[in-house]
Amino acid sequence: MPRTPAHPDAAQIDLSAVLDALRDPVRRAIVVMLDERGEKRCASFVHVASKTNLTYHLSRLREAGLVRVRPEGTVRIISLRREELQARFPGLLDAVLESARREPRLSERLAPA
Amino acid sequence: MPRTPAHPDAAQIDLSAVLDALRDPVRRAIVVMLDERGEKRCASFVHVASKTNLTYHLSRLREAGLVRVRPEGTVRIISLRREELQARFPGLLDAVLESARREPRLSERLAPA
After folding, report:
1. Whole-angstrom Cα distance, residue A84 to residue A82?
2. How many CB atoms lie within 10 A of CB B79?
């Protein structure tokens, strides 16, 4: 059974780390998907990146405090830490998500639900 | 007389490049200063970073489309591209600035006007 990986506490979430996580278009596509469709298994993102890259991108998002990873049996469930991010950096996540949705290439990265 | 360096057009400003520019706390401090105090000479930022680092950080901000650099005689005047950024990514710059102002170390980087 997979262990729960480390997450920063809400108060430890760092602005530089959040912006660093969100500067990558693949990571923005993952965050947009989680925002629109709710929590997801790791496997839901296989069309966004190769398995190796996906592991890397999800770790970056988790370490920055953007997503929570929860083991459930043999799978891992990913969810967006929306409320915690909103409390710490008001308006920031929404502004990035809105800008990301306007990117012409974003829709190519998002497969049907 | 210094030449005007290259700037991206408003329509070319890229979200990844903007977030990449803003992930650095020195560059955020420069952007906060420009937002609060209006356009500034290069020399106004010498307390924020060494001259070499400052040249680098101002280039990164200019190339990402966050600031405009205008030669005036022998000096360079830096200004924030606030309206263009707001039109392209509504709310994004304000959200980053507000979050940056809450950072405990920001005030150390900002010298008196």
Report:
1. 6
2. 13
Q: Does A29 touch chain B (CB under 8 A)?
A: no
Q: Do the Cβ atoms of A103 and B23 come within 8 Å?
A: no
Beta-ladder partners of A72: A75
- In Å, how far are A82, B10, B92 from B59, measured between CA atoms? 33, 17, 21
Residues of chain B with Cβ-Cβ distance to A15 below 8 Å are 25, 28, 96, 99-100, 103
CA distance A98 to A1: 37
Predicted ipTM beyond 0.95: no
Structure tokens at B45: 């930022």
C-alpha torsion sign, points B20, A100, A95, A52: negative
Fold for the domain defined by B10-105: Arc Repressor Mutant, subunit A (1.10.10)
pLDDT digits (tens, 9 = 90+) for B47-87: 888 888 999 999 999 999 999 999 999 999 999 999 999 99
A17 confidence band (pLDDT: 50, 70, 90): very high
A2, A33, A38, A86, B24 from A5: Cα distances, Å: 9, 21, 20, 22, 26
